[in-house]
Structures are given as structure tokens and as C-alpha cells.
Amino acid sequence: MSLITAVRVSRAPFMALGAIGVYWGTLAAMVPAIKAQTQASDAQFGLALLGAAIGGMVAMYLAPRISLALGRYILPLLVAVMFVAMQMPAFAHSVPALFVVLVALGATISSLDINANMRLSQLEERHGMHLMNINHAMFSLCFGVAALFVAGLRQAGWSVGQVFPLMGVAVVIMGVMTWEGRNWRPVDPEPEGAVTPTELPWLYIILTGVMLFVSFVGENATEAWSALFIERELGGAVGHGGFGPSTLGFVMAAFRLLGQVTTEKLGEERVVFWSGVLGVIGSLVIASAQSQGVVLVGIGITAIGMAVIVPTANSLLGKLVHRQQRAIAISRAWLIGFTGYFIGPSLIGFVSQGFGLRVAFVCVAIMVAFIIPAVVTIKSRRAAAA
């Protein structure tokens, strides 16, 4: 299977994930500016980030219903809503205001993210192709480009109120390309006489949720705090912090493209297991780094580890559940897992307030390690059922 074919088949979710990458890359590079604008302490900023978790959890729960109601219009409409939400950080000049803004951002971004992934899972089954890694590579590539570009804007003196509207233009352009038109159709109907299971496979959903949770903890903790780590802990110049999240994005993009091939050859469980090991090592390197070069190496190792866990876990769960259960199973796994995308940065904030950013990244390494027993359990259960 060629990468071009994979992109063509999955164009709409491909562009949706790219738009999400532009948003997150912009936010990650602007964290020092937003934190200064709100005059928040580390703990207060971490608490505000929990607002995004609240909004995200509501969106994850409602995602299957919203997807069913809006059908082919779901992705372009959600991108439009995301563009509006992107303008809100300019109005956050206090911690309570930032909390409200992040609730709205968490809900809109999470809704678009889960619907893009549910659509991908449908397309994987329909075409018999692995599509997750290349689509998530698009997210990481756009994340890295946006973070690097915004770092340059910050060095040039651009403010929060100037950066987000500009980057929103790129989001709108990508949103136009999420329209599927006649190519869209819902989940394929069941063959006549086929029986749909009445109970969800909660063990697989929970274990996949654990994989997603720890992956998001490692990924977004690094996204949200690496810029601050470089500029505050290591004395980097204004704007140099953007090299942290941009490194994460570029390395993740490259290894997600590689994961498009390795997952098909090695299998999902093996890929996720060793990715978790690398994620632990990368977080420990960040925690111990004494120079910008070393911290970027640690971010790179973390990126290699985190790159394929989320897309590969999505594909794995899609194979473990019945097709009629796929949307709700993925949404429930993401309801568990996506909270890590926000709890990770919040955890960093609380620990950093009391013990410093280095200890906080050690905590991230410990949490990422939980992915290993989750993978082992799924593998043993599948072997026993075979």
C-alpha cells in the first residue's frame, strides 16, 4: 500500500487531524506568553488546564450521537467551531477566564479529534488498510511546523491576540478539505443473519484507554511544558522554547510514517510495548538534562516512543470489537484516555509548583510505564481466546 493511496482514501480525517495539529502547535509555543498574560503560577496554570479535560470528557461522551446526527457535515462544521474557539485565548487575562476558555477549547478540539478517529476506523475496515499512523503523522507534522513558525512570531514580538487569528486562517483552509461529499457513507450494514453482541468488551476498552491515557500524558506534558522548561529551567531566550514542541512534532511525524510500515509487519502489541519503553527513557532524559541540546534529545526520544501508541492502539481496538460497536467503543476508550492529554500538563503544574519541573518529568516517566502491563494483558487475553 502506498502512502499516497492511504492519504487519498482518508483525505477528510487526514486534513482534520492536520488542523488540530496547527492549533496544538500554536498553543504549545504560546504557553509562556499565555501564562504571563494570565499571571498564573505553575499550579494555577495546571488547574486551568483541567478545564480542557472537563470539556474534552463531555465531548468524548457525546461524540457518537453528534456524529450520527451530523453525518457527512461533522468534520467541516467542527473545524469551523474550532476556528472560533481559537480566538478565545486573546481574551484570557486571568486564571478563571483561562479556565473557561480551556473548557471551550477542550470540548471543540476533542470532538473533532474523536470524530476524525472514528471515521478513520470505519475507513480502515472498509478498505482493508492501515490508515491511523499516516493520519496521525499529519497531526504531528502540522504541530511541529506551527510550533516552529509561532516561535519565530514570538521572537518578532507578536502577541497572543495577533498569533491565534493568523494561525486560524490555516485551520480554515484545511477545514474546507475535510468535506467528503458523495464519498461519505455511514457504517456498512451487517450481513443478513449476522448477530451483533449486546455487551461491550469493557476489558479491551479499559486497557486501550490506559494506553491512550499514558501516551497522552507523555505527549501533552512534553508539548505544554517543554517550552517553559527550556526558557525557565535552562535559561533559553524568548522564543527558543518553541524548539521543544516543534522537535516533538517533527520527530513524531517521521516515526508515525515509519509506523505505517512497521505496525503492519510487527503487529500492534509489539509496537506499543517498545514505544512505551522509549517514552519512559525520553522523559527521564528530559528530567536530567542540563543543556538545551540534551533536553531536545530527550524530547526526541519521547517523541519516538509516543509517536505510534495512539494510532496503533486505535487500530488494535477496532480489530477487537464488533463493527457496530466500534464508534462507541472508541469513544469510551478515548473518554478514559484523552483525559491524559489534559491531566498530564496539569500534573506537571502541581508537581512543578512544589518540587520543580525536573521532578514533574520523572512523574511522567512513571505514569508512561503503566502502558507495559496494559499491552501484556491484551496480548495474553488475545492468545487465550485464539
From TrEMBL:
<protein>
    <submittedName>
        <fullName>Membrane protein mosC</fullName>
    </submittedName>
</protein>
<keyword id="KW-0812">Transmembrane</keyword>
<dbReference type="InterPro" id="IPR020846">
    <property type="entry name" value="MFS_dom"/>
</dbReference>
<keyword id="KW-0472">Membrane</keyword>
<dbReference type="Pfam" id="PF07690">
    <property type="entry name" value="MFS_1"/>
</dbReference>
<dbReference type="InterPro" id="IPR036259">
    <property type="entry name" value="MFS_trans_sf"/>
</dbReference>
<dbReference type="GO" id="GO:0022857">
    <property type="term" value="F:transmembrane transporter activity"/>
</dbReference>
<dbReference type="GO" id="GO:0016020">
    <property type="term" value="C:membrane"/>
</dbReference>
<keyword id="KW-1133">Transmembrane helix</keyword>
<dbReference type="InterPro" id="IPR011701">
    <property type="entry name" value="MFS"/>
</dbReference>
<dbReference type="InterPro" id="IPR051788">
    <property type="entry name" value="MFS_Transporter"/>
</dbReference>
